[in-house]
Amino acid sequence: MKTHHVNLLNGIILIVIGLWAYASTTAETSTALIPVAFGGLFVITVPPFRSGNPLTANILTLLSGLLIIALLLSLWSTIRDRSGIPVFHLIVMLISSSVAFVFLIRHRRQKV
């Protein structure tokens, strides 16, 4: 699978699961929409990434790393407090983003 396909799939997963998590959570917080925003950015950046823009690859790698950190912190606080976004949603988004991050790192190493 090519890196831009993985990035597109990750963006779609983040949007769908993020909206599902936002709709199913009992707490009315807009922070549940952060993965949706990241997913939208990932989907928007597919055409320049596919064309080989190195700046886009660097930005996607940085954003994926930041998203993984944010999802890990959210997962930790959700497990600790037993509230917020359900754990299943966070784990799916975390796995998807981690796989995309590994593909992005491998892509950057191949280009160097």
TrEMBL record:
The chain crosses the membrane at residues 7-23, 29-47, 59-79, 85-105. It comes from the Bacteria. Keywords: Membrane, Transmembrane, Transmembrane helix. This is Uncharacterized protein. It comes from Flavilitoribacter nigricans (strain ATCC 23147 / DSM 23189 / NBRC 102662 / NCIMB 1420 / SS-2) (Lewinella nigricans).
